[in-house]
Fold:
Amino acid sequence: MKRLLLLCIATSLFACKGEPKEYVTLSGKISNPDESKILKVFRGKGYEKIITLNEDGTFKDTLNVIAGDYNFQHGKEYGQIYLENDNTTSFTTDNNSFIDSLVFEGDDSDLNNFSVKSFLLGKAHFSNELVASNDIDVINKAIENYKSSYEDLKVKYTDVDSTHLAMMDTNIDRTVNQLSSFVKSKVATNNAFPKGSPSPDFENYENYKGGKTSLSDLKGKYVYIDLWATWCAPCLKEIPSLKKIEKQYEEKNIEFVSISIDDGRGHKNDKVAAYSAWKKMIADKDLGGTQLMADNGFMSQFVQDYKVTGIPRFILIDPSGNIITADAPRPSSSELVKLLDQLSI
Structure:
């Protein structure tokens, strides 16, 4: 009887402790959820779990996973989360500011919060206005602050494993190296094309409205040049902002000149198709300003003379044909309006 009692006690204790669960419990709340009310958790093409949100945006489900990093999607928003069986993990966020308001709780919350906070450092330290700025000292200072903020995060989130820490170190170093190269490129451009030096010229570029146009035809006006192509997504993203700038300064002594360097890439190397796409996009998007086609794409002499290796690229020239800046702010940057207003155009 005594043996049986001891066995029952032992069995009871084991049952209280419980076997490791073969699933992770994931719960949380998404405020202002997307109308789909769907949260998709996935990992490449090998795993996918669909979780349906309640009307108030709350959710709870179990997922059988292989320990590792997973992606999740709600509407057009994405995030990343570490999941492991036998864990209980949750997060809350607002769909109107998805990543910015994302907070994890439960198991591995240190790791998950560290990952999202590290990602947000770039947004906090490198605004579009900063990157568009030609103030090299300010950009370098931002890089130093970025690195310092990351070190502070490592001190705050002490439970991050060495593997994830090494991965994030690599990502941070990559960002710093890219920005450092960007700064070096800006310095090189400014040194190669100092303010007040004569601008490289272009001659007889086809004008969408008919005839040919040369840079010399525009003397007496400030000239803001946009080098772009129909296949360039960042170029197209600037179009709405460029239209606003053109409207804002339509009565001023400035010509907005868009030079397409479409040479067939993005159109199966078919230059005829690229030319047609250029004309069609101008018509479809009702592009304003002076729309020109470069004579030889990236190999055009004007493009080569300005050492252009990527687009969009913006150039500002004074009424005498001299360079104001060979790397002008983008239309979407508030720095452009500041620069143009300083010139008293």
Summary: The first helix runs from residue 2 to 17. The chain has a mean pLDDT of 90. The chain has ten helices and 15 strands.
